[in-house]
Amino acid sequence: MDWLDEVKWDAQGLVPVIAQEAGSNDVLMFAFMNREALRLTAERGEAVYWSRSRARLWHKGEESGHIQKVHELRLDCDNDVVLLKVTQLGHEPGIACHTGRHSCFYQRLDEGRWQAVEPVLKDPERIYR
Fold this sequence. Notes:
The chain has 129 residues and is mainly β.
């Protein structure tokens, strides 16, 4: 059996993916992959996602230069979520979020309001020219 056949794809042919930083174990981002994106990620050793907004494959960092080098691919116990252990490249410390932050999970619920608790490391206007 092909290893890709073991993944439980949703009705749209997608699987949720969590990118976690190797070493710190920070959760950097959440995205989706289709079969081709997961195959390319395994082959290249760099994260390739399925962009639902663009309706196409998206090589992480293709515009920003913030590439994710993949060290491990893991599949959860139900075979329906993929975890990538990555090193975020392109800026030190690594920027994974399009807002210029290290992680997409930069907002924390504080007294009934979402508060940004992580700094912008680089102005997105300077990232996406």
